C-alpha cells in the first residue's frame, strides 16, 4: 500500500498523473450558494452533500481530506456545514476562498429569514399563522429532544460524562449559565477526569481491541479510531500552534441590556457564536436567557425565531437574523447575522490547520470527551426551555410524535416541521382547535 502511494506521488511529481482540479472563486461561490439553497436539515445531512460535491463530483478533495475537514468543522463552534465549506475554501483559495464559501452558504437562508422577519414585523401574526407557528415550535422541541437522546446513546457512555451532562442541564436551565461557560466546564472536566486515566486505559485496550471512537459535539458523530487519526495527522504540513488555551470559548453568561443598541446586539451575538458548540440548538438556553430575560423580544417571538431558523435552509444560527430584525430592523439583522458567524469563521481560519494536526492528541480527545456531554446537556436544556411554551395538548402531542418518528425513521427534520405546521392548521380548520 505504501509503495503504491509513493509511486503515485512520484508520478504526480513527474507530471504523469493528472493534477487535481482547484476551484476558482466563482466556482466556490456557486457551489456554496447551491448548497445553501438545498441545505435543509443542517448538521450531518448537509455535510454529506458537501462531501458528494467536493470529493465525488468536483474532485477537489480526497476522501481522507474531506474526512479531516468534517472532523475539524465539528470540533469548532458554529454550523458544521458552514465551517466545512470555509475550511475547503481556505485550502483552495486562501482567505478569499474561505470568505466566499462561507458567505455563499449563509446567504440564501439569511435572505429567506430576512423576508419572513419583515413580514412578521410588518403585518403581525394572523390567528391561523400563529397556530401554524405553534405547530412548528412543538416540532422543534421534538427535534431537539431527539438530538439530545441520540447523542446520549452514541456519545455518553461513562458515569462522569452523565454527571457532566446533568450538570450542564442544571446550569443552563436553573443557573442561567451561557453555552460558552458550560462548554469550558465540560472541556475542563474531560481534561481532569479522562486524561489522568488515559494511559492505563489505552494499555488495556491495545491488548484487547483498537481504540474506541471519540464522539464529536455535532450530533454525536464519532471520530475515527486513534491509530487512524495519528496516521492521517502525520501526513499534514507542520504549522506553528497558537498559544495554549486559545481555542477555548469565552464566558457567555453576562447579560447585555437591550437599551444599549446595536453595539450591545453585536456583543450579545458575538459571544453567542463563540459558544455555539454542537450547532445552533446548543445556544438556545443562554440566548433565551439574554434575549427574553433581558427584554429584547417576547417569548413568542423567540420561539418563532428558533422555528424559522430550523425551517429555512442553512445553519440554525440564522435565527439571529430574525431576532436582530425584530429588535432593530434591517441594521439589527445585519449586525446580528455578521457577529454570530464572525467568531466561528475566525476560529476556522486561525485554528483549522492547527486542530487538523492536533486532533489525535490525547489532550484534545480528552477535552472532546468532556465537551460532548456538555453539549448533550445544552441540547436537553434547549428542549426544556422551548418546551415550557407548549401549553396546548395538541402541541405536546406533536412534540412527542416528532421524537418517536425521528427515533424510528430517517426523515428530514424540515419535512417534519412542514407536516407539523400543516397538521396544526388542518386541525384548526376541521375542529376549531
Please, could you describe this protein's structure?
The longest helix has about 45 residues, at about 80-125. The protein starts with a helix and ends with a helix. It has helices at about 1-15, 25-40, 45-55, 65-75, 80-125, 125-155, 160-175, 180-195, 200-210, 225-235, 260-275, 285-290, 300-310, 320-360, 360-385, 395-410, 415-430. It has 17 helices and no strands. The chain is about 70% helix and about 0% strand. It is mainly alpha-helical and about 425 residues long. The protein has one domain (about 110-430).
- Helix/strand-derived class? mainly alpha
| Shape annotation | globular
Taking Cα atoms only, what radius of gyration do you get, to the nearest Å? 22 Å
The percent of residues in helical segments reads over 70%
Main beta-sheet strand count, sense and barrel state: none
Proportion of beta-strand residues: under 5%
Uncertain stretches? 1-8, 219-260
Mean pLDDT across the residues is 77
Number of strands: 0
The total count of helices amounts to 17
The total number of structural domains is: 1
Query: N- to C-terminal separation?
Result: 66 Å
Order of helices and strands: HHHHHHHHHHHHHHHHH
Amino acid at each position: 500500500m505504501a509503495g503504491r502511494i509513493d509511486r503515485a506521488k512520484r508520478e504526480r511529481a513527474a507530471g504523469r498523473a493528472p493534477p487535481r482540479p482547484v476551484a476558482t472563486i466563482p466556482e466556490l461561490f456557486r457551489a456554496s450558494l447551491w448548497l445553501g439553497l438545498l441545505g435543509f436539515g443542517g448538521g450531518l445531512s448537509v455535510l454529506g452533500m458537501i462531501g458528494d460535491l467536493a470529493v465525488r463530483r468536483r474532485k477537489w478533495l480526497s476522501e481522507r481530506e474531506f474526512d479531516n475537514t468534517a472532523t475539524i468543522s465539528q470540533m469548532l463552534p458554529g454550523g458544521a456545514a458552514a465551517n466545512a465549506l470555509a475550511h475547503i475554501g481556505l485550502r483552495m483559495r486562501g482567505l478569499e476562498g474561505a470568505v466566499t464559501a462561507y458567505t455563499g452558504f449563509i446567504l440564501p437562508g439569511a435572505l429567506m429569514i430576512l423576508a419572513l422577519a419583515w413580514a412578521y414585523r410588518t403585518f403581525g401574526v394572523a390567528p391561523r399563522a400563529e397556530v401554524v407557528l405553534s405547530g412548528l415550535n412543538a416540532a422543534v422541541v421534538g427535534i431537539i429532544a431527539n438530538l439530545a437522546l441520540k447523542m446520549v446513546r452514541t456519545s455518553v457512555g461513562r458515569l462522569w460524562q452523565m454527571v457532566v451532562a446533568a450538570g450542564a442541564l442544571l446550569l443552563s436551565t436553573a443557573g442561567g449559565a451561557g453555552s460558552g461557560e458550560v462548554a469550558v466546564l465540560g472541556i475542563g472536566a474531560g481534561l481532569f477526569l479522562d486524561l489522568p486515566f488515559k494511559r492505563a486505559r489505552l494499555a488495556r485496550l491495545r491488548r484487547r481491541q483498537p481504540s474506541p471512537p471519540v464522539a464529536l459535539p455535532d450530533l454525536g458523530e464519532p471520530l475515527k479510531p486513534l491509530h487512524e487519526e495519528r496516521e492521517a495527522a502525520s501526513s499534514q504540513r507542520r504549522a506553528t500552534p497558537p498559544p495554549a488555551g486559545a481555542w477555548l470559548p469565552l464566558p457567555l453568561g453576562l447579560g447585555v441590556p437591550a437599551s444599549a443598541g446595536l453595539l450591545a446586539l453585536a456583543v450579545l451575538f458575538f459571544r453567542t457564536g463563540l459558544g455555539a458548540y454542537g450547532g445552533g440548538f446548543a445556544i438556545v438556553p443562554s440566548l433565551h436567557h439574554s434575549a427574553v430575560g433581558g427584554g429584547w423580544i417576547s417569548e413568542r417571538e423567540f420561539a418563532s425565531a428558533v422555528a424559522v431558523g430550523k425551517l429555512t435552509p442553512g445553519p440554525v444560527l440564522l435565527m439571529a437574523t430574525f431576532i436582530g430584525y425584530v429588535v432593530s430592523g434591517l441594521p439589527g439583522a445585519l449586525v446580528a447575522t455578521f457577529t454570530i458567524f464572525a467568531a466561528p469563521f475566525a476560529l476556522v481560519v486561525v485554528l483549522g490547520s492547527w486542530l487538523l494536526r492536533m486532533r489525535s492528541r490525547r489532550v484534545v480527545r480528552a477535552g472532546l470527551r468532556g465537551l460532548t456531554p456538555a453539549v448533550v446537556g445544552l441540547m436537553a436544556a434547549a428542549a426544556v426551555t422551548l418546551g415550557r411554551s407548549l401549553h396546548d395538548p395538541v402541541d405536546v402531542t406533536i412534540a412527542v410524535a416528532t421524537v418517536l418518528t425521528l427515533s424510528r425513521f430517517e426523515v428530514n427534520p424540515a419535512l417534519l416541521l412542514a407536516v407539523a405546521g400543516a397538521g396544526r392548521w388542518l386541525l384548526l380548520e376541521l375542529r376549531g382547535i
